[in-house]
Design brief:
Structural class of chain B: alpha/beta
Protein name (chain A): Ribosome biogenesis protein NSA2 homolog
Structural class of chain A: alpha+beta
Number of strands of chain B: 6
Number of domains of chain A: 2
Biased composition (Basic and acidic residues) (chain A): 1-22
Function (chain A): Involved in the biogenesis of the 60S ribosomal subunit. May play a part in the quality control of pre-60S particles.
Number of helices of chain A: 7
Family (chain A): Belongs to the eukaryotic ribosomal protein eS8 family. Ribosome biogenesis protein NSA2 subfamily.
Oligomer: heterodimer
Strand content of chain B: 5-15%
Strand order of the largest sheet of chain B: 2-3-1-4-5-6
Largest sheet of chain A: 5 strands, mixed, barrel
CATH class of the largest domain in chain A: Mainly Beta
Order of helices and strands of chain B: HHHHHHEHEEHEHEHEHHHHHHHHHH
CATH topology of the largest domain in chain A: Thrombin, subunit H
Distance between the termini of chain A: 62 Å
Largest interface: A-B, 17 and 25 residues
CATH architecture of the domain at 172-353 in chain B: 3-Layer(aba) Sandwich
Number of helices of chain B: 20
Bound molecules: guanosine-5'-triphosphate, magnesium ion
Shape of chain A: extended
Number of strands of chain A: 10
CATH class of the domain at 172-353 in chain B: Alpha Beta
CATH architecture of the largest domain in chain A: Beta Barrel
Helix content of chain A: 25-40%
CATH superfamily of the domain at 172-353 in chain B: P-loop containing nucleotide triphosphate hydrolases
Strand order of the largest sheet of chain A: 5-6-8-9-10
Strand content of chain A: 15-25%
InterPro entries (chain A): NSA2_fam, Ribosomal_Se8/biogenesis_NSA2
């Protein structure tokens, strides 16, 4: 025992008080009631947080109980259908399985029919121009108002140089420019941070596409060379399309789903 | 030599990552405004949320910064502690954890900055709120990733704070040797450390510190876990603690060997350990201590073993000593021997060091020679030589007032010669006044300026006392004093209260001129009505004329020069130009 562990030392030398175990047991037994009291009393945000925590705890508890039960329970034998000659009353089971395959096939067909531009977010909310552009007043008396500032996230390509401020109609602020997007691969179920190459299409209007405005539903081209995807021909794919799934101006980041 | 005592107990507790987030977010909630409405101007809304983000970021930074600054930097602590921490907590792991905390701090700073920048473009309450939420969420995520580092640091903190506080610079005795040879028993004999003693190996598993006194100095005794004789790489954490102490502390090394072999290790193995770790001792004073001398003495051993031990002594590697903690023989002798050796060693190293020259130059022992044969004894006045030292119990002592009082029957019993007592009291009071005046004159730092005329009279406390003693002169004193008080305005203020008392006292002493001292305690500015007028009749005429001039305008309730007036409501020079109206008073 190290030198300064005085509590442990005392316990070792003098032992615990005689009713220590009894008290401990009682405290533990009472704890359930105390928790319940607490849960009934709290309200508001704290209640919300507490309930969420409790909920996940309970799920965990149930899972562990079930795991223990599984050990005890008699397991049903896996594949009851014998091989070889099959009695008639069992034939329909096989049929069922086949039906499942069929329905899957139909689904697949439907998907293919839907066309190449079937994207995760087929519909987007319309965005008015005055929501996207803020009017900037210019002139000595601040009487002119032909200048606009884009208040949404934008992507601006490498070689962009500003026009002289006097002639610049659209200002795209530095703070709202993005170069990278968090792209989720829907099949791998993994997310990567990839550099944006270009804005392919903004569903709101072609002008937005031209300006590189990034809103929910916009199709962007991302650089996937990091992922090491290969075409059927064996070439490394480096540009792929992805659709933005969040409102970048509200979240401060760009989330997108890779279109595969 | 700088005395750096490390206090690892001061490190603040490190909360777990989820607690950390809770602490910071609830603090933000408590310390920032909570009410905002969509109707507010957008600037105000933005400012509201920016403040929240900024505050959260700063709180995180502060708390993480505290962790980083609290934990000792391995490079800056004493190498003993650095090595000990390396042994106990693994240096790489420790540095990595602190490094990760530092990166987390930087990341949070960046997130905060980014989102404040984004908030500047927020155009609605909803958008601002979403941005705030995203910012806090990202900070919380960064913290969540620090779960392991924070947990590890908390463990380190708890262990570190329980570490015995070892001073790396003081006089130290270091006890080492094989396990179970009686190290802790000796430690318990010489200090009050109360280390566990058991008849099996590795009872002591960490460093123990005890303190003792020798030659009125404070000494530190360090009990270490036992070490076995094998390679450094094979040593475990327990043994490494001893090795660290051996390597870094400037101490007297007491190497224990058990001649009786009750410990379970042969004398040969114990001696071979001594030889293998000898390089670690350097030239520090080393003692080879044969413990358990009650069980077996050196003389009882076979010739070869005796020779081995003697050889070590002869080679000068160590001094021999024997003791028995059971019989309490040789314990104190051994301790004193070790202490003496260490003291000698410390003095020697100091003399060898480079710093000593600077100090030796400063030391000069002067031995003055006799100038001539003239005697120059110290001067004692005649009066003093005749005087006797006052002694309460001497029957021939001087008679004091107290004795007279006692003779006439105890406290308060003054019967005969009341006149004399009153006179005495008066003289005491006067003396007191003089003393007070003296100290006041001395203490008055910003002494008031005294005009030349008065300075010529040299009014010092001594003068004042002389004059007080001489009753005939009292009038002149009063005059000069009042002169002094009235001529200098400053003095009048600073001393007025005291003067009042002084005046009273003088009055009581029988001089009727005390009234001159009646001054007001509070300073009052002089009325300026009669400024520049020769006498009171002149003042009268002036007042009359003044009243007459005002009579007409007063009758008509006209504006006078003392009425408040604003001549120009908006001065042109303040309200023209491009800036906001009236925001500045210079253009
Ligand atoms: N005969 C005899 N036995 C002693 C003496 N001093 C200690 N012992 C016994 O030696 C055994 C070990 O003593 P400790 O003081 O625990 O030895 P240690 O060197 O601290 O052991 P570790 O902490 O395990 O390294 C105990 O059983 C003591 O009773 C002594 O002077 N004479
Ligand atoms: Mg021990």
């Amino acid at each position: 025992m190290p030198q300064n562990e005085y509590i442990e030392k005392s316990i070792k030398q003098h032992g615990r008080r005689l009713d220590h175990d009894e008290r401990k047991r009682k405290r533990e037994a009472r704890q359930v009631h105390k928790d319940s009291q607490f849960a009934q009393k709290i309200h508001g945000l704290k209640a919300k947080i507490h309930n969420k925590k409790r909920h996940s705890e309970k799920i965990q508890m149930k899972k562990t109980i079930k795991m223990h039960e599984e050990k005890n329970a008699n397991q049903k034998t896996g594949d009851a259908v014998p091989e070889g000659a099959v009695p008639a009353y069992l034939l329909d089971r096989e049929g069922q399985q086949r039906a499942k395959i069929l329905s899957n096939m139909i689904k697949q067909k439907r998907k293919e029919k839907a066309g190449k531009w079937d994207v995760p977010l087929p519909k987007v909310r319309g965005i008015a121009e005055d929501e996207t552009f803020r009017v900037i007043k210019t002139g000595k008396r601040k009487s002119k108002s032909w200048k606009r500032m884009v208040t949404k996230a934008t992507f601006i390509g490498e070689g962009f140089t500003r026009k002289p401020p006097k002639y610049e109609r659209f200002i795209r602020p530095m703070a709202l420019r993005y170069k990278k997007a968090n792209v989720t691969h829907p099949e791998l179920k993994a997310t990567f941070q990839l550099p944006i190459i270009s804005v392919k299409k903004n569903p709101q209007s072609p002008m937005y596409t031209q300006l590189g405005v990034l809103t929910k539903g916009t199709i962007i081209e991302v650089n996937v060379s990091e992922l090491g995807l290969v075409t059927t021909g064996g070439k490394v794919v480096w540009g792929k399309y992805a659709q933005i799934t969040n409102n970048p101006e509200n979240d401060g980041c760009i989330n997108a789903v890779l279109l595969v | 030599m700088s005395q750096t005592l490390y206090n690892f107990k001061r490190i603040h507790p490190v909360p777990t990552s989820s607690d950390f987030v809770d602490i910071v977010l609830s603090r933000t909630q408590r310390k920032t405004p909570t009410v905002v409405h969509p109707g507010y101007s957008i600037g105000r809304i933005r400012q509201f949320y920016m403040r929240k983000v900024k505050y959260t970021q700063e709180t995180f930074e502060e708390k993480l910064g505290l962790i980083i600054s609290d934990f000792p930097q391995l490079d800056s602590v004493h190498p003993f502690y650095a090595d000990l921490m390396n042994v106990l907590y693994d240096k790489d792991h420790y540095k990595l954890a602190l490094g990760q905390i530092n990166t987390a701090k930087n990341l949070i700073t960046n997130v905060g900055k980014d989102y404040v920048r984004l908030l500047k473009f927020g155009d609605s309450l909803y958008r601002c709120k979403q941005l705030k939420k995203a910012a806090m969420g990202r900070m919380a995520t960064i913290m969540k990733r620090q779960k392991d580092s924070l947990g590890y640091l908390e463990q380190v903190r708890m262990h570190l704070s329980r570490l015995p506080s070892i001073d790396t610079n003081t006089r130290t005795l270091l006890i080492c040797g094989y396990p179970n040879v009686g190290k802790s028993s000796f430690m318990n004999k010489v200090t009050r450390a109360d280390v566990e003693v058991q008849p099996y190996a590795f009872t002591t598993k960490s460093l123990f510190v005890g303190h003792m006194d020798y030659k009125y100095l404070r000494w530190q005794v360090l009990d270490t876990p036992g070490i076995l004789d094998h390679e450094l790489e094979e040593r475990n954490t327990i043994e490494m603690q001893s090795i660290t102490a051996l390597a870094h502390l400037r101490a007297a090394v007491l190497f224990f060997i058990d001649l009786s072999e009750q410990c379970g290790y042969s004398i040969e193995t114990q001696l071979s350990l001594f030889n293998s770790i000898k390089p670690l001792f350097g030239n520090r004073p080393t003692l080879l201590i044969m413990s358990k001398s009650d069980a077996k003495q050196l003389e009882d051993l076979p010739e070869e073993t005796q020779n081995m031990i003697k050889e070590i002594e002869n080679s000068g590697a160590a001094k021999l000593s024997r003791l028995s903690s059971y019989l309490d023989t040789g314990v104190m002798e051994t301790r004193n021997m070790a202490c003496e050796l260490l003291l000698q060693y410390r003095v020697d190293t100091k003399l060898k060091g480079s710093k000593i020259k600077e100090n030796l130059n400063k030391i000069n022992l002067s031995m003055p020679k006799k100038r001539d044969s003239v005697q120059r004894p110290s001067f004692i006045p005649e009066a003093v030589i005749g005087k006797q030292r006052y002694d309460m119990n001497d029957p021939n002592r001087r008679i004091l007032e107290r004795d007279i009082e006692a003779m006439s029957g105890g406290a308060g019993e003054i019967d005969e010669d009341e006149e004399r007592i009153i006179k005495l009291a008066k003289s005491i009071r006067t003396k007191k006044q003089i003393l007070a005046q003296q100290s006041r004159l001395k203490n008055n730092v910003n002494r008031p300026k005294v005009t030349n005329k008065i300075r010529a009279t040299k009014l010092t406390a001594q003068n004042f006392a002389d004059k007080l003693a001489n009753k005939d002169n009292l009038d002149t004193i009063n005059n000069t004093a009042s002169n002094l008080l009235s001529t200098s305005a400053k003095r009048k203020r600073s001393l007025s209260v005291a003067n009042k008392g002084l005046g009273d006292e003088l009055a009581r002493m029988g001089t009727n001129s005390g009234a001159q001292f009646e001054q007001r305690a509070v300073s009052v500015s002089r009325s300026r009505v009669d400024a520049g007028l020769k006498n009171s009749s002149m003042l009268d005429t002036v007042m009359k004329k003044h009243a007459k001039v005002q009579r007409k305008s007063n009758l008509l309730a006209k504006r006078g020069e003392s009425d408040r007036q604003i001549l120009t409501k908006m001065p042109k020079h303040l309200f023209s130009g491009k800036r906001g109206n009236g925001s500045n008073d210079y253009r």
